[in-house]
Amino acid sequence: MKKKHKSNISPVLVGLMGSGKSSIGRRLARHLDLPLIDLDDMIVERAGCAIPEIFAAHGEDAFREMETVALRDALGRQAVIATGGGIVMRAENLELLKQHPPVIWLKASPEFLANRIDGDANRPLIAAGDTLSKLQELARVRYPLYEECADYILPRGDMEKDEALEEILAFVQSWKDDISDQ
């Protein structure tokens, strides 16, 4: 097992729902000896109810506002930050992400994601069914935004989480080296 080391880097993970932001984020945080800040968990804790309940009671716009507040609170802290899939839907969030590198996009195809998350009732945007077509539409809208703020794009494909972690760690080390050379 590789030695854990305190990091002076705070990676931010973005990507569509189901791409592994939370699960890979936990592994990355353990490896870097940093806490994980999962924005969805932060929102649920602050709201006192689950994300589908927030959407049902207050709507997506209210959820997105809570997401922006959580992002502002998390950025700049020594942590790995796992965002929600729609974090890039607000221009303010996109600018915040660009100002706090490195942003790592866990890129996965809608087909791969649909197989992973179909039927997940905790994901309001796909709760009504037709998961694949909804993910394809989300990808069409969000992929250019993820690309705009990403410092690194990890094409997940059918990559296992441990392999994804190794790829991210290699990028993080390279990124840190580049920063220290400047």
Quick recap of the structure?
Strands 2-3-1-4-5 form a five-stranded parallel sheet, with helices on both faces.
Describe what this molecule looks like in 3D.
The two termini are 31 Å apart. The model is unreliable at 1-6 (pLDDT under 50). The chain has a five-stranded parallel β-sheet, with helices on both faces. By secondary structure, the protein is α/β, with parallel strands linked by helices. It has a single domain (12-167), classed as 3-Layer(aba) Sandwich (Rossmann fold), CATH 3.40.50.300. The radius of gyration is 16 Å and the shape is globular. The chain is built from eight helices and five strands.
Helix content: 40-55%
* Name of the CATH architecture: 3-Layer(aba) Sandwich
Q: Give the total of domains.
A: 1
CATH fold name: Rossmann fold
Tell me the distance between the termini: 31 Å
Give the biggest sheet. 5 strands, parallel
Shape: globular
Low-pLDDT segments, ≥5 res: 1-6
The top-level CATH class is: Alpha Beta
Outline the secondary-structure elements.
Elements: E1 12-14, H1 21-32, E2 36-38, H2 39-47, H3 51-58, H4 60-74, E3 80-82, H5 91-98, E4 103-107, H6 110-117, H7 131-149, E5 152-155, H8 161-181
Parallel strand pairs: 1-3, 1-4, 2-3, 4-5
Key features of this structure:
182 residues, alpha/beta, Rossmann fold, 5-stranded parallel β-sheet, 5 strands, 10% strand, globular, disordered N terminus
